[in-house]
Q: What sequence folds into this?
C-alpha cells in the first residue's frame, strides 16, 4: 500500500541525496562512485511523487517509461510490480538509471522541478533496476511468443542494437548481433568508465538477452569481414546501430606527438583492455603526471577523471568557454571537482609542443573572453590579444567529440548518407534501402544512450510491421 500522505506533505519531503564514495579515496580507485540508495531511502524519495494525472515526466523521457506507475509501486513496497513497469518500457534500466541526463529529461519536467528539487527519478530507476538484477526469480519474465521464422541481423552491440534486439526477440523474430569488437555494450563498455557504470551491469543485461535467444557474434566487422550486401542475402532485415566512434581531430600543430591521445583510444585502452589497472594488462597507457583533456562534455569528464585515477597530479580540463557553458552533466562536473580535477577555463589550445625526443611537453594556450551569443545561444569565446602562454603537460587527450565511422558505409555506397557521413533514416529508422533500418549515433552523430535506445525501440516496431508485410 502506498502510504497515505497529502500532496503538501509529499512536497515537504526533502530530496534524498545519493550516497557516494569519499572523494579523496575514490579519486584513486575505479570502483563505482555512487553507492545507491537503501530501500528506506528509495521509498522516502518515491513518496515525494505526486502521481500527477498529466504525467509531465513521462513526456520528458525518450522511451516513455511509466514513471509515476513504477515510482508509486516502489513507494508502496511492491518491488516486483515496480520492476515490471520499468523493464516493460526500458531494456537497460540499470544503465539508464546511472548515465541518463535525467536533469534535462524526465526530471526537468517533474512538477517539483519548479521548486528546484525534482523527484530523483534516475536514482529510483537505478534502485529498482538493481533490485531486479539481484532478484531475477521474483521478476516476471517477458512472455515467450511463437517463433515467426523471420531473421534480423543487427550491426553493432551498443544501446541501439541491444534495444532493437530485445524488442525484436520479444516479438518472436530470430536475432543475430554482429559486433566488431571482442566484447559487447559499445560505448557503455569501452567508453563509460567502471566508476560510473560497472561492467557487471552490462554483463547481466546482455546475458538476459542471450537467455531470451538473442545470438551475438563478436569480432565481425561489417564492411570488412562481411558486407551489408551479404547480410541482406542471409537475413530478412538488417538494423544498423554501429555508432559514431571516429574521433574529430583538433587540427592544431603537434597533434601527432607522442603522449597525445584521442579520447576513444584513451578510454578504450583503460576500460576495455584494462590498461593501467592491472599488472597483467597487455595494453599499455602513458600514466602522465600533468594531463590536459581538451573539451568539456561527458567524454572529457570521463577522460580527466580516469587520468586522476591513473595517478595524475594535475588532471585538467581545458575549455574555451566558462563553467556555465560546459556541456557535461552537472553531477559529473561536481564529482570531478571534488576529486581534484582542475578546470582551465576560457582557454583555447593553439598547439602542442614537444621536447627533442618527440614527447609532448606543453600545450600552447590562448586566453579567451566571452562575447555575444552565437547560433547555439551560448556566448561566443573570443581570443584576448597577446594573452598566450604554455601549460606544462606530459599527456594530452583530445575529447572534442566523434563522428560516423566510415568502415561500413564506405563498403555500402548504395546507402544514403548526409554530409557528415551519418546514415539518412526516417522517424521509424527506415533507410533508402528496403529492409535496412538504422538508429542511434550513426543517424544522429554523438548523442545519448537513451536516444539510441529510443531509436532501437522505434525501429523494432517498424521492422515488425515490415516483416508482417513482406
Ligand atoms: P555505440 O554505443 O557506439 O555502439 C556501436 C557499436 O557498433 C560498437 O560496439 C562498435 O564497436 C560497433 N561497430 C562499429 N562499427 C561496426 C562495424 N562495421 N561492424 C560491426 N560492429 C560495428 N550518453 C549518455 O546518455 N550518458 C552518458 O553519461 C554518456 N557518456 C558518454 C561517455 C563517453 C566516453 C562517450 C564516448 C559517450 C557517452 N555518451 C553518454 C553517449 C552514448 O554512449 C552514445 O550516444 C551511445 O552509446 C550510442 O549508442 P549506439 O548504440 O548508437 O552506438
Ligand atoms: Fe511524480 Fe514528478 Fe512525474 Fe509528477 S512529474 S508523476 S511528481 S515524477
A:
Amino acid at each position: 500500500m502506498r502510504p497515505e500522505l497529502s500532496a503538501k506533505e509529499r512536497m515537504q519531503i526533502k530530496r534524498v541525496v545519493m550516497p557516494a564514495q569519499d572523494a579523496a579515496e575514490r579519486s584513486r580507485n575505479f570502483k563505482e562512485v555512487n553507492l545507491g540508495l537503501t530501500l528506506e531511502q528509495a521509498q522516502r524519495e518515491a513518496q515525494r511523487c505526486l502521481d500527477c494525472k498529466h504525467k509531465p515526466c513521462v513526456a520528458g523521457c525518450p522511451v516513455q517509461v511509466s514513471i509515476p506507475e513504477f515510482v508509486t509501486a516502489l513507494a508502496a513496497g511492491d518491488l516486483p510490480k515496480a520492476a515490471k513497469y520499468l523493464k516493460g518500457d526500458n531494456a537497460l534500466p540499470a544503465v539508464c538509471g546511472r548515465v541518463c541526463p535525467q536533469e534535462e529529461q524526465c526530471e526537468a519536467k517533474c512538477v517539483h522541478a519548479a521548486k528546484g528539487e525534482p523527484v530523483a527519478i534516475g536514482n529510483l530507476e537505478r534502485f529498482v533496476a538493481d533490485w531486479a538484477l539481484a532478484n531475477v526469480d521474483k521478476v516476471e519474465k517477458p512472455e515467450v511468443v511463437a517463433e515467426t521464422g523471420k531473421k534480423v541481423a543487427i550491426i553493432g552491440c551498443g544501446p541501439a542494437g541491444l534495444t532493437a534486439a530485445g524488442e525484436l526477440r520479444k516479438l518472436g523474430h530470430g536475432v543475430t548481433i554482429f559486433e566488431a569488437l571482442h566484447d559487447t555494450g559499445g560505448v557503455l563498455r569501452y567508453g563509460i568508465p567502471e566508476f560510473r557504470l560497472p561492467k557487471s551491469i552490462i554483463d547481466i543485461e546482455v546475458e538476459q538477452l542471450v537467455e531470451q535467444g538473442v545470438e551475438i557474434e563478436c569480432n565481425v566487422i561489417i564492411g570488412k569481414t562481411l558486407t551489408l550486401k551479404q547480410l541482406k542475402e542471409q537475413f530478412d532485415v538488417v538494423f544498423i546501430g554501429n555508432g559514431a566512434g571516429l574521433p574529430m581531430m583538433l587540427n592544431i600543430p603537434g597533434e601527432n606527438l607522442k603522449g597525445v591521445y584521442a579520447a576513444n583510444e584513451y578510454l578504450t585502452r583503460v576500460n576495455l583492455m584494462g590498461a593501467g589497472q592491472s599488472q597483467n594488462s597487455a595494453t599499455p597507457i602513458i600514466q602522465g603526471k600533468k594531463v590536459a583533456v581538451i573539451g568539456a562534455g561527458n567524454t572529457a569528464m570521463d577522460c580527466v577523471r580516469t587520468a586522476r585515477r591513473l595517478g595524475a597530479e594535475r588532471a585538467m580540463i581545458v575549455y574555451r568557454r566558462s563553467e556555465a557553458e560546459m556541456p557535461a552533466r552537472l553531477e559529473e562536473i561536481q564529482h570531478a571537482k571534488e576529486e581534484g580535477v582542475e578546470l582551465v577555463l576560457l582557454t583555447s589550445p593553439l598547439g602542442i609542443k614537444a621536447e627533442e625526443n618527440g614527447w609532448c611537453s606543453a600545450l600552447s594556450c590562448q586566453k579567451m573572453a566571452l562575447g555575444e551569443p552565437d547560433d547555439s545561444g551560448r556566448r561566443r569565446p573570443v581570443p584576448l590579444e597577446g594573452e598566450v602562454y604554455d601549460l606544462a603537460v606530459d599527456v594530452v587527450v583530445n575529447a572534442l567529440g566523434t563522428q560516423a565511422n566510415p568502415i561500413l558505409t564506405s563498403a555500402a555506397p548504395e546507402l544514403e548518407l548526409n554530409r557528415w557521413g551519418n546514415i539518412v533514416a526516417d522517424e521509424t529508422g527506415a533507410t533508402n534501402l528496403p529492409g535496412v533500418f538504422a538508429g542511434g549515433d550513426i543517424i544522429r552523430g554523438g548523442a545519448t544512450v537513451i536516444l539510441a535506445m529510443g531509436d532501437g525501440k522505434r525501429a523494432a516496431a517498424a521492422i515488425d510491421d515490415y516483416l508482417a508485410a513482406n
About this structure: The longest helix spans residues 449-469. The chain has a mean pLDDT of 94. Residues 7-138 form a domain with the Fumarate Reductase Iron-sulfur Protein; Chain B, domain 2 fold (CATH 1.10.1060.10). The CA atoms of residues 15 and 45 lie 6 Å apart.
